[in-house]
Amino acid sequence: MNRVFVKEEACIGCHLCEVYCQVEHSQTKDLIKAFKRESPRPLPRLWVEGGKPVSFAVQCRHCAEPSCVFACLTGALQRDPESGIISVDEERCTGCWTCILACPFGAIKRDTEQRRIVKCDLCPGEDVPACVTACPNEALIYAEV
Amino acid sequence: MARTEKVKYLIIGNSSGGIGAVEAIRGVDKAGMIAIIADEPYPVYSRPLISEYLAEGRPLERMLFRPAGFYENNNIQTHLGRKVKHLDIGEHVAELEDGERITWKKLLLATGGLPVIPEIKGTNLNGVFTFTTLDDAKAIDRFLSRLPERAVEAVVIGGGLIGVSVTEALVRRGARVRVVEMKERILNTILDEEASALEEETLRQAGVEVLTGRTVVEISGEHPVKGVLLDDGSRTPCNLVVIAIGVVPRTGLVSGTGIKVNRGIIVDRHMVTSSPDVYACGDVAEAYDFAYGENRLTPVWPNACIGGRTAGFNMAGIPTEYPGGTAMNSMRYFGLDAVSAGVVTPPDDSYEVLSRKYDYIYRKVVLKDGLVVGMVFVGDIEKSGIVFGLMKDKINADGFKQELVADDFGLASLPEEIWRPGLEIPPSGLASSVPLEQAEEMVMGE
Predict the structure, then answer these.
(1) Do B164 and B95 share a domain, yes or no?
(2) Average pLDDT, chain B
């Protein structure tokens, strides 16, 4: 199963991964509309941390023993036994944020408008996640583990 | 002669702990018969969502913790809406109230907690409720629907998590609510003074009256409730009372069995009780608390799930250690986000406290000997899990502790050796988790 990995040395802190993640998770998949028109506003599911000299993107690690899934109060967070992907059932998430307290990577974000969490879903339907495709300096790697 | 059922795994309790256990068992033992007994008649639902049921009538289908078909798909025998009358630990038999007997090889007690009812007059009056189960929420809902709109005057006894949850639900239903808290501040066991004050202010802004340092000494009325009498002699009229002064481990089943109980059923790091084939987890268990370094009650949903999962692996013959849990809570009352964990108010000056507060943003970290042992985050909570992780993994934070309460805190604030292994391609592929690694060595079945 493939995962997104970080190559910190190559990250230039440009935040393009965030931009393209947001577009990928928008309804229109259009850069301008995703940022200016859509409501509810799509949110990026990863973010660049740090600044100078160290920066890197952080997204869900899809842990084998996922603290967030064990902490989830509603059963919205699940780990697919086949793919190992941690997914969130948006209908069942009530935005209690217990998973946020449980995630040691700080990789879960609040969507306060829709009162639910957002996190990396590895871009279902795409061969390569949008953040990896968009990274201009190959600081994000999509690789088998 | 009553029927006798034979199962390999018997689980008493059908909530977070029980489900955590059956999922672990089914991960490594597809065939061993599992039975779940619970006195509630419902498939596993999210207890914390009963406030959403009460507030806006969220249907049971949208409260289910696992999808429909969960029990069938996992080949689990269910005895829902039934009670265990007696446990014979020596014989490995559970006798149900209707006379049926179930024999087991491994037993898990995941019976949860029971609300504490104070010894005061009037707790049995019509209009007096507790708030821990779906049936409690249904009962309050039915009672509310018979009262005229906007005419509900509620008194909530107890300003802890359950008390504040039911308060929010009642306010959303249009009730006027007074919270009576015995201690000097609400949410006093899980928040520190600063955060309690922010919560209290938020409640007041939502129109809730908060009375602290007061107890209810009598609930008055006949049919239904008419009001409460406080310890200062004042009377408060009301037509609804919710008792939320706390929950105690539901240990009744083990009394007289010889299984050791302190405040809860004592379990070791494998979630085994003092009797080798009997396990316990969740609100009923007193298990290892990593923030305090000793066994404590930590009655929160995530710990029940992880404790149950640990018990399940061990019951199925996969030696697995409980990593420990600690009190951890996330709150979102009236729109104010707050999380806390571990020791939030240091008991003495051997602890170090770092904090930062402005407006409704508050961050506090409690350290002892360089290790994080407690935390409170209000407002901006999204990086709180990183601090919780440091606490859980007992990582010495002396060198970077000031960063933990900084506005721009994140993984990048930590030393490289902490963040790098989690983000980069591991040199030799991803290591399997402990239970899965050991599963290959396990001798399955019988």
Answers:
(1) no
(2) 94
Q: Are B423 and A61 within 8 A, CB to CB?
A: yes
- Tell me, yes or no, whether B428 lies in a domain: no
| List of residues 6+ apart from B94 with CB closer than 8 A | B10, B12, B37, B84, B86, B87, B88, B101, B102, B103, B104, B107
Could you report the per-residue pLDDT of B43-100, keeping only the tens digit for each? 999 999 999 999 999 999 999 999 999 999 999 999 999 999 999 999 999 999 999 9
- The answer on B254 and B216 residing in a single domain is no
| Of the partner residues B49, B384, B435, the one whose CB lies closest to the CB of residue A101 | B384
- Are residue B146 and residue B224 in the same domain, yes or no? yes
**Contact B383/A70, CB-based, under 8 Å?**
no
Q: Do domains A1-59+120-145 and A64-119 have the same CATH topology?
A: yes
Q: Does a structural domain hold residue B329? A: no
CB contact under 8 A, A98 and B301: yes
Domain locations in chain A? 1-59+120-145, 64-119
Across the interface, do B301 and A145 touch by the CB < 8 Å criterion?
A: no
> What is the per-residue pLDDT for B428?
56
Task: Give the closest-approach CA distance of B83 to chain A in angstroms.
Answer: 25
- Residue of chain B with shortest Cα separation from A76: B65
Let me know whether B107 and B202 are in one domain: no
Q: Which residue has better confidence, B446 or A62? A: A62
- On whether the A64-119 domain is CATH 3.40.30.10, my answer is no
- pLDDT value at B406 more than 60: yes
Mean pLDDT of B18-26: 98
B384 part of contact set with chain A, CB < 8 Å = yes
Which chain A residues have any C-beta within 8 angstroms of a chain B C-beta? 3, 5-8, 49-50, 54-56, 58, 61, 64-65, 67, 70-71, 73-75, 91-92, 94-106, 108-110, 141, 143, 145
Which parts of B57-122 fold into alpha helices (H)?
70-73
- Does residue B330 belong to the interface with chain A, where contact is any CB pair within 8 Å? yes
Which pLDDT score is estimated for B1? Answer: 56
CB-based contact, B310 to chain A, within 8 Å: no
Parent domain of B349: 343-423
Within A5-138, residue ranges assigned H as helices are 16-24, 31-36, 67-71, 98-102, 130-134
Within-domain flag for B445: no
Residue B303 lies in a domain: yes
Q: Determine contact: B365 vs chain A, CB below 8 A.
A: no
Q: Extract the runs of DSSP E, i.e. beta strands, from B110-224.
A: 113-115, 128-129, 153-157, 176-181, 209-212, 216-221
The answer to whether the CB of B114 falls within 8 A of the CB of B285 is no
